[in-house]
Amino acid sequence: MFDNHVHCHEFPREELEKYTKEWTLVCVSDDLATSRRTVELEGAVRCVGIHPWQVDKAEPGDLEAVVRLAEKAEVPCVGEVGLDRRFVPQTFNKQREFFRAFLRLARELDLVVNVHAPDAWADVVEELRRADVDRALIHWYTGPLDLLETIKDLGYYISINPAVVIQKKHQEAAKAADRRIVLLESDGPYEYRGMRLAPPLINKTVEKLAELWELPRDQVVETVESNAKRLWRL
User: Fold this and answer.
1) Residue ranges for the binding site for a divalent metal cation?
2) Tens of pLDDT along 140-152?
3) CATH code of 155's domain
4) What is the Cα–Cα distance from 49 to 65, expressed in whole angstroms?
5) Which residues are part of a known binding site?
């Protein structure tokens, strides 16, 4: 199964090696240093980028360096990139500068954009649309339900993670979304309300989706895996 958004560089090596044997990991990066580590990973879908939380810490030249790294390493994805009005609103203008640079790169090289968007859901969708990006995944979606139709019409996806078992907004989004745009993620090893998120917990996500969608577990897995293969062109 696919874990479509996971911070592989934060896991201990032995733990990560175990997961790569059982899962197709889409490994996102946070900054230039972690992007360099990500491109060295084997057996994973590699995403390079600068996280919105890190843009204010980026050194001059870091953005250009990550762009060059994406080109040189021929990665299929940029991420984790995006906009954040909830946790770091004070850097929003710089976030947008970085995000637009990554969107230009994604458009030029036909890359997937793995997006972070707390309280900037409509902003990122509009930026993606204006940049004419073909493929994007908005991770841990808890945004407006009425935006889901636009996301679908643009051909983009959202991802649901194990927080859905306790987070009401995540449940509402998972239930309201067209099933053809839903993917799974762990966002591991993030800590959320006592849960250490990691790929194995995706099984809990599947169980919750089966409940919300009123479908057998196997049918949920078939749906989300088909969606992932379509996004990653596999």
Assistant:
1) 5, 7, 80, 116, 139, 187
2) 999 999 999 999 9
3) 3.20.20.140
4) 10
5) 5, 7, 80, 116, 139, 187
